[in-house]
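question for whoever is on the cluster today: can someone run the full assembly for these? two chains, 225 residues total. i dont have access anymore since they changed the login thing
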Amino acid sequence: RKEVEQDPGPFNVPEGATVAFNCTYSNSASQSFFWYRQDCRKEPKLLMSVYSSGNEDGRFTAQLNRASQYISLLIRDSKLSDSATYLCVVNGNTGFQKLVFGTGTRLLVSP
Amino acid sequence: DAMVIQNPRYQVTQFGKPVTLSCSQTLNHNVMYWYQQKSSQAPKLLFHYYDKDFNNEADTPDNFQSRRPNTSFCFLDIRSPGLGDAAMYLCATSRGAGGYNEQFFGPGTRLTVL
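^ ran it for u. tokens below:
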């Protein structure tokens, strides 16, 4: 089983739609979680950090379920500019911060 | 603006010809990382420095070396690039090495091996 698993997509949605991505992780000791956004041929950029049960930033909501080892990202009112790959990233332990990356979920928002 | 800078953005080298990639940061972060990312794959950690302490991932090939001469700069040396080393190389930094330190990435260097 992979340490971090994501549905690769692509998710094709129209502008204005609500879309949700799921991510599962295998290390029950993981304590912090991140969503990064990566545009084609660019670097990952931090979208949200999730330290407790969830986090909300404008149209973006992340939720964490530790019991099920599951993180989600909800995007409301999708914009064309939201088209990107969304990487689920998990911190493995409280010592050295080695980030474990999922392979990403690709989102395509169309007019 | 504080940032992570990588040079060059694009690097073309020949099979077996050594190449050095550069990363600098104005964030004054303690930790610097090098990742390799191939198409449609997740970034793969090669090594990291916590200050001057070097930490190599177990599966990083010996062909890859790194230097951190000071807090701001970190270099990735590929001694004898093979065709399989063509990838995007990402430098990242974090303030500390605790569980809640976010990592910030530079724009990457895309390496082509001919």
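summary bc i know u wont read the tokens: Chain A touches chain B through 25 residues (CB under 8 Å). DSSP finds no helices and eleven strands in chain A.
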